[in-house]
Amino acid sequence: MKKSFLSVLFGVSFLVIFCGITEAKAAEGDVGFSVQANIPANQVDKKQTYFDLKMKPKQKQTVEIEVMNSSNEEIQVEASVNYASTNQTGVIDYTKNDLTKKDKSLKYPLPSIAKIPDDQKHLTIPINGKKTVKVTIEMPSESVDGVILGAVQFKKKNTTENKQTKGISLKNEYSYIVGMQLTETDKQVTPHMNLLSVKPALVNYHTTVVAKLQNDQPVIIKNLSIDAKVYQQNSDKMLYQTKKADMIVAPNSNFNFGIDWKNKPLKEGKYRLKMTATNGVETWEWDEAFTIGKEGQDLNKDAVNLKQNNGWLYVAIAAGAFLIVLIIILVIRKRRKNKEK
């Protein structure tokens, strides 16, 4: 399988810059260093510059990645092995290495079978010099169908720049990701998705209901489209709807799909989520009841741009204005009667 997204350069300034997306050695720019994977003989697709390796049970293999410093100063680089996850925008994320947060269905996360020696996890690279990092892979004893997916990340240390722009602090960090995809068999694995939970939340401080979706199979789900609709329980009137297409989900991962609440308060009550997901071949449908309780009120307090329903306020203002006019009329009539007397 050709996965050109497996080798990328990340530049974080509250945004992600993709550079040299089809090559492990990306354009250096002002990053000051680059990486190059040495492709071994058991590479499935030799046109790719990330690792796409055909392995066997119990097989041990060491692959190499060269890290080159083209800057005019000595640099420090951290190397780590990460497993592939899926972020809330429906994109595969290769920067996660906290195994406590992996999906429960992920039996063999890449960091558990691919190791970097301790003395190569922190590199000091001289001016115009290079270092070679060796990654040792040891496959599980049992045969594995599907894909084990992850990456080797190289992050520059002590070179972050904090820029102040009109009171906003921007933190620049640059790192390279060299993808690693391991397979043993040619068996086609059928993807399968589960709806794990539905609950209110804040996404970027905006009111949302998130549906946690899980791909519990060792296969990448591509071209995923989702149509989610929310109803009041026992009502056919749709309250909110969110659609999204062209998502990609990592093997054995979960992610939160957000249903936009249109900046309105999360009202307590009982609701129903009707959601359809499809990759063009398989289709999954859910009809799930959920409740928004007092936790929704706490989320409303922290939300931004919240559009409150002020209908009751307008009624109160109108009633007050009517009452004032009525009092004025009564006072005027009373004065006229007093004058007539």
TrEMBL record:
Superkingdom in the source lineage: Bacteria
As given in the record, the signal peptide range reads: 1-26
Q: Which organism is it from?
A: Listeria welshimeri serovar 6b (strain ATCC 35897 / DSM 20650 / CCUG 15529 / CIP 8149 / NCTC 11857 / SLCC 5334 / V8)
Q: What sections of the protein cross the membrane?
A: 311-332
Domain named WxL Interacting Protein host binding is located at: 166-300
Recite the UniProt keywords alphabetically. Answer: Membrane, Signal, Transmembrane, Transmembrane helix
- The reply on keyword Signal is yes
Q: Which InterPro entries match?
A: WxLIP_HBD, WxLIP_PGBD
Q: What is this protein called?
A: Putative secreted protein
For the keyword Oxidoreductase, the answer is no
Domain WxL Interacting Protein peptidoglycan binding per the UniProt entry, residue ranges: 33-156
